[in-house]
Amino acid sequence: MRIEIEAGVRLFVDVQGPGLLPDGPRMRELPTLICMHGGPGFDHAAFKPGFAALADVAQVIFYDHRGHGRSDPRPPEEWNLDTWADDVVRLCDALGLVKPIVLGQSFGGFVAQRYLARHPAHAGKVILSSTSHHMGLERKLAAFERRGGAHARALAEDFWLRPSMQTWHAYWDGVRSLYNTRPPLDPDAGARTLIKPEILLHFVAGEKQQMQLLPGLASAQCPVLVMCGDQDPVCPPEDAQEIADALPAGLGELVTFAGVGHGAWRDDPDAAYAVLRRFITQPL
C-alpha cells in the first residue's frame, strides 16, 4: 500500500504480522519495528522473507524511502538525509505510531543516525546495522583489498571517488560477492530488488563525500544497538566501534559477529535474529 506522509508524497509500505495479539482475556500490543533499507537507490526487498522471523515479537513495517522502489518518484532536491530522516516521523504520524523501534541497515543506518540527531526523543529504540558514520574511504579500500586483492581495491576506489554508471556497474559486478562471507541463502533476492542508480549516484557524488554523522549521536535518548560483521568491507567494524563510542553512556550496545560481512542475518541468521529478538523484547 502507499501511505501519504505529506501532500503529494506517498511511500510504499508493507506490514508483516499483527500489532495486537490475543492473550487470554486481553489483547497484547506488540512493539513496532520499522525497517529502513540500504542503498541508496535500492528498496525494502532484501529484508524479505527473513524478517518474518521477528513477527511474533514485533509488528514489522517495511517501506521504501522517499523516491525509492515503489514509493512515488520525487525530485533530486529531496534525495538527502534530512528529508529521509524526517520521513520516519512523517510516516509514524500517518500511521499513528508512537515510540517505534527503528532499524537502519547500511544506508538506512545513515538515515537512522540523522533521525536520532534530528528527533532524539521520537524512537523507543534504534538499531544501527552494518552502517558507517562517514565516507571512510581509506578504511573501505583497505578492507576490500583484504577481501579481494588489488583489483577489488581499484574497483572500489574508482566508484567511490568517480561515481558514474560505468564505475558503478564495474564495482557492483566485481565486488558484490565480497560484501558477504557465504553464498546467499536466497539466490533470487538480488533480482527482486528495484534499483534506481540515479539516486545512488546523486548521493555518493554529493552528500556521502563529506558525511559526518558522529556528532549527532550524542543527542540520542533511547537504547541503541549497533550490529556489525567483522568481515564487512563497505561498512568496516572500526566504523561501528566509533558509532557505539559516540553514543551517550549507558545507551549504546555493540555486537560484532565473527566471520560475517554486510548484514549479519545474511551470513549468520541464527545469531543475528537472536540478538534482534533479545533487543526488541528487553524492557526499557
Automatic annotation (TrEMBL):
GO terms for biological process: proteolysis. Residues 31-263 form the AB hydrolase-1 domain. InterPro entries: AB_hydrolase, AB_hydrolase_1, AB_hydrolase_fold, Peptidase_S33. The keyword Oxidoreductase does not apply. Keywords: Hydrolase. GO terms for molecular function: peptidase activity. Gene3D superfamilies: alpha/beta hydrolase. Belongs to the peptidase S33 family. This is Alpha/beta hydrolase.
